[in-house]
Amino acid sequence: MMGLLNTDSLLVQTLFAGVLLVFIAKQFFGSRKMAKLAPGPTRWPFLGNALQLPQQQMWLTFSDWAKTYGDVIHVDVFGQPIIVINSAKVAKDLLDKRSSIYSDRPHLVMAGDLVGYNDPFVLQPYGEKWRKQRKFVASDFSPITIPRYYPLQETEARKLVRNVLANPDSLFPQTKLRIGTIIIRVTYGYYIKDENDPFLTLPLTAMDNFSKASAPGTWLVDFVPKLKNMPSWMPGAGFLETAKKWRKIVWDASWDPYNWCKNNLDTGETLMPNLCGTTIQSAEGKLSKEDEEQLVWAASAIMGGGLDTNMSTSLSFFLAMVLHPDVQKKAQAEIDAVIGRDRLPSIADRESLPYVRSVITEVLRWKPPVPLSVPHSLTQDDVYEGIFLPKGSLIMPNVWHMLHDPEAYPEPASFKPGRYNNSDAEMRKVHDLVFGFGRRSCPGVHFAEGTLFAIVSTVLATVDVLPALDAQGKAIKPDPTYSSGTITFPDAFPLRLKARSKQAETLLAQVPSAPQ
Ligand code: HEM
Asked: Which sites bind heme (predicted)?
């Protein structure tokens, strides 16, 4: 009995030790090393997949690759792992549910360290400064606070329609001017005078430079970071001079309007409320130097986050209306039935116009303005359904692919607002993808939705959007071709606007001319 017991306990101990070892091994190595990298195209030594990445509309190539490699694809560019996610479920499982490790941004040497674009919080690493900036913005653009900006959004939407009605060729510059005016006004309390106003042109130049500074594969220093310390007189150091010039533009574009806002608070010239003015006033002179700096960068992120995205969506809406007169008629009929023709719609009418809301959602699905979203960065090794995701990977959600999945959206290339059956829950699924993920999701979403509704409903209530006519009087059908950047725009297209009635023209003419 004793012997048996001894033998038994030895056996039990050995078994227990074995199980423990396997458990420890699994904890430390198993889940990681036993998991495999996600599938992806064959990688070359050193280059990885650099030569396979297209320069144009990468989301379409990634979407094509999904047929071969599936929902999660591992791509390597000079040793930098990139995880492309082609499924809404996977994107949510990782970026929403595991957001504590998926909320960093990639580190860009040229655009970030040298030019300074990692100060505004769109590119800020996930940490204290990001948190502070996000808090400033979240409180000023919350669903409770934004109705105070409705009159401004509605007025600018009406000015947009009135001016494009007078000159249809001005569609692109007018859209930029009116949306830029809204953003600068709510951020600094400054009302843009015209398209040459430096408070508009400086941030626009800064945004253009950002595209150049962050263009993948353009700057050697992004691959060899030590080059940033080379003396500026050395041959090949021209990028340092460029970075210095661009840095000054970022600085002036961010600090000049802030200082204007602060210096004019007492004179009453600063239009209230606005993000910077309200924050300065509520601090009652106690805003620390550090907080002031974070407020300046938070404010400058608003322009970067809010201008091109809204502009792209508004232009896609005009394009969709030229191409789909049947949809336009149906949306106009809804407005006529609910609002009538004696007044213009306001943002407060949103609830009662579900088909108009569906048109906006369909524009966002049909041509998502940020097709690959903004990349996140993974801060520690992770494993998802047997796939190993290395620390430092760039995470690219292919939102375009998710919104063109024929299982979720039959005939995805067609423009069909009726597919949502006026259901807000269905529409929300689209917005949830278009405006990003987890802790980095767009803090301007509610404000953006207000601006879009103001523009779309004003257009539909007052004008017919029609194709331009050629010399023979034949309608020109525009080609819906798009640019390739992080934020994609329709290429210039001609159109015509025709007032729906004399009454509509009169209502548009009544727009207040004084800044709001
Ligand atoms: C149609 C309009 C808009 C679209 C489609 C859009 C989309 C996005 C997307 C996809 C992101 C990245 C989310 C992620 O990383 O997961 C983002 C971030 C951001 N957006 Fe928007 N946005 C729009 C309008 C706005 C507006 C009006 C503002 C400002 C009021 C704004 C401010 C920002 C900021 C500051 C960030 C950075 C957030 C962070 O890194 O924590 N956006 N937006």
From this structure: 442
pLDDT in tens, 428-439: 999 999 999 999
Residue spans of alpha helices (H) in 141-197 = 150-166, 171-188
CATH 1.10.357.10 given to domain 31-509: no
Ligand 1 centroid–CA 450 distance in Å is 14
435 Cβ contact partners less than 8 Å away, ≥ 6 residues apart = 441, 442, 445, 448
Residue 284 CA to ligand 1 center (angstroms) comes to: 29
Cβ-contact 487, 312 below 8 angstroms: yes
Which strand (E) or helix (H) includes residue 428? helix 424-434
Measured from the Cα of 298, ligand 1's closest atom is 35
pTM score, whole prediction: 0.92
Measured from the Cα of 375, ligand 1's closest atom is 15
For 443-496, the pLDDT digits (tens) are: 999 999 999 999 999 999 999 999 999 999 999 999 999 998 889 999 999 999
- What contacts 166, CB < 8 A, 6 or more positions away? none
Distance 374 CA to ligand 1 centre (A): 9
Q: What is the mean pLDDT of the chain?
A: 92
CA–CA gap between residue 281 and residue 298 (Å, rounded): 17
Atom of ligand 1 nearest to the CA of 440: 41
CA of 468 to the centre of ligand 1 (A): 33
Among 33-37, 48-52, 508-512, the least confident range? 33-37
Q: Which parts are annotated binding residues for heme?
A: 442
